[in-house]
Structure formats: structure tokens, C-alpha cells
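ok so I'm stuck.
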Amino acid sequence: MKTDKQLRFFMVAFVLLLPLAAFSQMSLFNSNERGIDSIAQNIEILDSAYLNRNIIDLVTRPSIGFRGHIRLSQTPAVENALQGYISNASKRNIPGYRIRIFFDNQQNARRQSEELLKEFQEEFPGIGAYWTYDNPYFKVTVGDLRTKSEAMKMLLMIGDKYPAAFIVKDNINFPVL
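replied:
not stuck anymore, here's the structure
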């Protein structure tokens, strides 16, 4: 009975002290080992999936209301591993939403869908447009939207030009900076 209580105590202590071990490599002293010391102000909150963004630089930027210094030390191997993870993540798909502006299976549907795709790309060059054939339908979907509210905004934006457009759940590409 006594050993069971001791075991629980050590397990709880381990779980509570584990986060401290994770941050033990971070030092709050003002040395300049790699030249990345700075006053942490204006930290931007960004999605780590964005390619060519250095998270360490974002953390060490000056921030409003914070007067301390943050010093992060990392080996080049850690930096390379992080960049590799980010570049591989940007090639994967995530669940999200798109707007379907064309969906048909008539004899001339292929030609119509290709024309509509080209027209959309000319009118909205910054928005991704995708042409697919899912037997027997030709489809044109647009956008890479993470939330349904983003999809609703885009639907309102293009709704005048494409009144039959509707929102569909789809796997989307990571947004590109």
C-alpha cells in the first residue's frame, strides 16, 4: 500500500517536472553564442507550415510588453531537421474547403470546364483553381480554404460571377507565402 502511494507520487512528480526538462536548454542569460539574442518584442503568430520561415527568429524578435532576453541555442542539425520537416509538410494536403464552380457530365462538359478554368485563372490569378475528371463528371474547384467561414467569404466574393457555385469539403494544399 505504501509503495503504491510512493509510485503514484513519483509518477505525478515526473509528469509535472517533464516540461521543465524540455525548457532546460533555453537560457535567459545575455550571452551571444550564435548572435540570436534579442529583446523579445513583436512576436508574430504564424503557422509553422509556411516554408522559408525561421521560427527561432520569430521567437527572438522584440515583443511589446516583454523586457527580458531570450537566448536560444541550436545545432545546425536541429535547424536542418526543422527546415526539412517544414518543406515536406508544405507538400502534403490537409482537410479544408474549396468552391466548386463547375460540375457537369454532358458531351461538351470537358471543353466548358477547361474554358471556365482558364477564365477563372485570368480573372482571379492569386486563387488556386483545379480541374478534375471524376467519372462521369468534369469538375472545376477553386481555392484552398482552411475554414468554412473563409469559404463563405470567397463564395460571396465570386458568387456574382458564378451563381451556381457551392462549397465542398476537400483536401487542400498548404497556403503558400
